[in-house]
Amino acid sequence: MPPLRIGDLVIDPPILQAPMAGFTNAAFRHIVRQFGGAGLLATEMVNARGFVWLDENEAEHPDRLWGVADEPRPLAVQIWDNDPETMAKVGRRLAEEYRVSVVDINFGCPVRQVTEKAHSGSYLLREPNRMHAIISRLVQVCAPTPVTAKIRLGCSRENINCNEIARVVEEAGAAALTVHGRTAADMFRGNADWERISEIKSHLRNIPLIGNGDLDSAEKVVAAFDQYDVDAVMIARACLGRPWLFAQAAAALRGEPIPPEPTLPEQRDVMLKHYQLVVDRFGDEKGTVLMRKYACCYAQGKHGARYFRTHVAKVSTPEEFHSVVEEYFPLHDPKRESQDADSVSSAAGS
């Protein structure tokens, strides 16, 4: 699989980690890097207007830029707002001061607080001229740092305009386009429409197309490249409790055996390391509260996960967190153990 090229930046493998609000902070990115396999990592989306206010009034920068100045590259920072000049102020700082690898613009967030209240994110899909103004202004101030855009198929199933938007994004000077295969109205319901994503490729002249949506296994990543006309893929929610998914997908793309899932005790150790990174940054109480959602992700799909989630959602101190993990985090899977036992019995009888 050829590497992805975003401007002069070469991304290999062409597997990207999606920016996700409230999740993809420096602690999570550190864990992903330890497993490997992600060609490009991204921050949580940063509110450009909030960045400017903090900078001018508190001489501080948002917590969502924690770690950005010092961590390894390549690294993308995603920003959002609807004002070209506000976005330009932040983009310039990210390119010149933080020296990020990519400045990504969020035109895909479907959350009401961003769309209806701030008229940003996926709301802007109904305003292609404003999108063009935002992108072109950022391209102007960020050069030579590439500027990219992330969109959805449209605002609703009745208003799918991703092909038109793709042309606008490229004409404005963006170096790549990422498309999530749902509309804003879909939120995360239903299945991502990869056929629609693939159709967009013919509307782009020179920039790469990155597909996003429902990639929760290495096999699905390989299938996305095999079946659809995309230059790269972006993994989102599935990686939150499985940061090793990128390494599995990268191995599959190379035609190598897919590494097995870590054992449940190993997964618990990863979660505890993640927890320590969060606590080191935010302190015992805030760090513990922030870790609740990550802990629920690590337990997702496991035997007994419901009991763990119920208890971990109430913790607020390191002592409580470690006690709940010790007592409730699933360390065995009766169904899998039964299957393994059946396999051993069959082998013994053959």
From TrEMBL:
Classification via CDD domains: DUS_like_FMN
Residues involved in FMN binding: 19-21, 78, 150, 180, 236-237
Catalytic activity field: a 5,6-dihydrouridine in tRNA + NADP(+) = a uridine in tRNA + NADPH + H(+); a 5,6-dihydrouridine in tRNA + NAD(+) = a uridine in tRNA + NADH + H(+)
SUPFAM superfamilies: FMN-linked oxidoreductases (SSF51395)
Stored InterPro entries: Aldolase_TIM, DUS-like_FMN-bd, DUS_fam, DusB-like, tRNA-dHydroUridine_Synthase_C, tRNA_hU_synthase_CS
Occurrences of domain DUS-like FMN-binding (ranges): 17-326
Keywords for the protein's UniProt record, in alphabetical order: Flavoprotein, FMN, NADP, Nucleotide-binding, Oxidoreductase, RNA-binding, tRNA processing, tRNA-binding
Top-rank taxon: Bacteria
Keyword Nucleotide-binding: yes
Cofactor: FMN
EC number: 1.3.1.-
Gene3D superfamilies associated with the record: Aldolase class I, Putative flavin oxidoreducatase, domain 2
EC primary class: oxidoreductase
Pfam family membership, one: Dus
One example GO MF annotation: flavin adenine dinucleotide binding
Active site: 109
Purpose: Catalyzes the synthesis of 5,6-dihydrouridine (D), a modified base found in the D-loop of most tRNAs, via the reduction of the C5-C6 double bond in target uridines.
Family label: Belongs to the dus family.
Matches recorded under PANTHER family: TRNA-DIHYDROURIDINE(47) SYNTHASE [NAD(P)(+)]-LIKE
Name of the molecule in the record: tRNA-dihydrouridine synthase
